[in-house]
Amino acid sequence: MPKMKTKSGAKKRFKITGSGKVKTGQANKRHGMIKRTKKQIRQSRGTTVAFKTDGENIKKYWMPNG
């Protein structure tokens, strides 16, 4: 039986925190900034923790060794 490999795209996009949560970049930052308020743009800087169910799926299917 071969080893389970981490999906290389997931390696670049997600990190697993010490408590097992999945940390990811903020969404909706690629284009269309002109129609968003300055507050929305400011608040979507940096990273965020994925929702619990999304994080479980990421760890199960794409980052089994994470």
Automatic annotation (TrEMBL):
Keywords: Ribonucleoprotein, Ribosomal protein
Alphabetized GO MF terms: structural constituent of ribosome
Pfam families per the UniProt record, alphabetical: Ribosomal_L35p
InterPro entries for the chain: Ribosomal_bL35 (IPR001706), Ribosomal_bL35-like (IPR021137), Ribosomal_bL35_CS (IPR018265), Ribosomal_bL35_sf (IPR037229)
Domain of life from the UniProt record: Bacteria
Keyword Nucleus found: no
Region entry Disordered, spans: 1-45
Any single biological process term in GO: translation
A GO cellular component annotation in the UniProt record: cytosolic large ribosomal subunit
Gene3D superfamilies registered for this protein in UniProt: 4.10.410.60
Biased composition (Basic residues): 1-15, 28-42
Keyword Transmembrane helix (UniProt): no
Record-linked HAMAP family: Ribosomal_bL35 (MF_00514)
PANTHER family: 54S RIBOSOMAL PROTEIN BL35M, LARGE RIBOSOMAL SUBUNIT PROTEIN BL35M
Family the entry assigns: Belongs to the bacterial ribosomal protein bL35 family.
Protein name: Large ribosomal subunit protein bL35
Protein source organism: Variibacter gotjawalensis
Lineage, broadest ranks: Bacteria, Pseudomonadati, Pseudomonadota, Alphaproteobacteria, Hyphomicrobiales
